[in-house]
Amino acid sequence: MCRVNLLKLLHMHSPHLNKKMNKKRAPMPPPNATPEEIGEFWDTHSLADYWDETNEVDFQVNLKPNYNLVPVEREIAEQIKAHATKQGISAEKLVNFWLREKLKGRITKK
Fold first, then answer.
1. Whether the model pTM is above 0.70
2. Which single residue of 6, 21, 29, 68 could bond 33 by disulfide (Cβ 3.0 to 4.6 Å)?
3. Are 84 and 90 spatial neighbours (Cβ–Cβ below 8 Å)?
4. What residue spans define the domains of the chain?
């Protein structure tokens, strides 16, 4: 794998970026800023203006879904969707609610 310093590459090919990065900019939130403060800052600022303050990082991502798919007959699925729509919730939430309630009933009866 080849790693390239993206910032240097951008500077070589985009002279206007150099001017943009040298302009006066607000300081980034301090390390002890709350998530709300950080969110408010990035809602009104562009990462492009702070690219020179970024660091290369390595991380892993777990792409395994945290749910299981269970086949449901089409007619039942359509009834679930209709019922969920009437309730104003997703079919997924409705099914999970029903299953949770059903499992609670079985546990308490034992």
1. no
2. 29
3. yes
4. 6-53, 74-109
